[in-house]
Amino acid sequence: MNGDERYRPAVPRPTLGRCPARTCHRLGAQLNGLCDAHYQLWRVSRFPPLEAFLTNATPRRGDLGGRVVMT
Ligand SMILES: [Zn+2]
Fold it and tell me: pLDDT digit of tens for each residue in the chain (71 aa)?
């Protein structure tokens, strides 16, 4: 949208960036930057120290590339 006399041009919303988990390529969804899948894993693990969690978190379904080929 280029905008007009009534509305300004559309601009992308700010992003939280990529999930900081070592094995993840998803977009962050939580205020601490984790994607929702890793946030849920962190939560059910009872919120261990985040630095160690980011290094040791296992990939979530669809991680490590996240591409799906549909034939
Ligand atoms: Zn993640």
Answer: 788 999 999 888 888 899 999 888 889 999 999 999 999 999 999 999 999 999 998 888 766 555 555 66
Question: What type of residue sits at position 51?
Answer: E
CA–centroid distance, 69 to ligand 1, in Å, is 21
Cα 56 to ligand 1 centroid, rounded to whole Å:
12
Q: Is residue 5 part of a domain?
A: no
Distance CA 68, CA 56 (A): 25
Residue 66, in any domain of the structure: no
55 Cα–ligand 1 center, Å = 11
